Amino acid sequence: MKTQQMNRDWIATARTLSEALPYLQRYTGATVVIKFGGNAMGSDEDMASFARDVVLMRHVGVKPVIVHGGGPMINAMLDRLKIKSEFVNGKRVTDAATVEVVEMVLSGAVNKRIVQAINDEGGKAVGLSGKDAGLVICDQTDPDLGFVGTPAQVDVSILNDLAAAEAIPVIAPLGAGRNGETFNINGDTMAGAIAAGLKADRLLLLTDVEGVKNADGDVLTELTSAQIRDMTVSGVIAGGMIPKTETALAAIDGGVRAVVILDGRAPNACLLELYTDHGAGSLIRA
């Protein structure tokens, strides 16, 4: 019985690989930007699974670019250092002391953890932030929020060089101001700006929800930009989903072919989205 079960498993695996062939061909040479949020990172096992998927994508011809967050890790370090945060309209004020911690956590611990995980799986990951090689120049988003930036200029030449070397960029969401300041950037916003700069085929926003839901709570697998705008006006899209869909719309307007909002906690979420018929989240395109 055990041998029969193993045979069935192997047959199912072979069938899955065969069915994936059109998608493997479809995405060969494609640039896919993945926003890997702090809430999606999970355990070391989860990190290794994500890294394995990214390495597989690189080996079958996809050019993945990872943009990560790290909010929970930043909060933990601020608490550890007893740095109290202030908020304006629900948004954290990033003062000089806080931005130092943000850079230390994002460019240091979080970035290098992802890089190491990818390298451990046989990939060739390179960690950097928007401050490196003039990748992202920022304007201050709101003086009341301190060192929080909005991407104003994106120069992706360093990312193209890394892709040509078959390396996988892992980018911390930090940027340089016009006077050399360090700015913290919302991770989704950063991923959208990078994807638009690369004219990516896909932007995958890995989050902690299954996708965009309708008024009945059902996940919508395909949406247009117009539908997103209508659902936002009507209040169906609300709360934390609004900035994600706004990022999607801005990325599409910037030249990204499609954006997918999906649950990064689900095993093999990126592979399911790219290489299966049913996908794994809500696909948004113009």
Radius of gyration: 19 Å
Strand order in the largest sheet: 5-8-2-1-11-13-14-12
Stated plainly, the CATH topology is called Carbamate kinase
| Structure summary, number of beta strands | 14
Shape: globular
Approximately how much helix is present in the residues? 40-55%
CATH superfamily: Acetylglutamate kinase-like
CATH class: Alpha Beta
Distance between the termini: 51 Å
Task: Sketch the topology as an H/E string, one letter per element.
Answer: HEHHEHEEHEEEHEEEHEEHHEHE
* CATH architectural category: 3-Layer(aba) Sandwich
Structural description of this entry:
There is one protein chain. The chain is globular. 46% of the residues lie in helices and 22% in strands. It is an alpha/beta fold. A hairpin with a 2-residue loop joins β3 and β4. An eight-stranded mixed β-sheet has the order 5-8-2-1-11-13-14-12, with helices on both faces. Strands 7-6-9-10 form a four-stranded mixed β-sheet. It has one domain: Acetylglutamate kinase-like (Carbamate kinase, 3-Layer(aba) Sandwich). α7 runs parallel beside α9. The mean pLDDT is 90. It is built from ten helices and 14 strands.
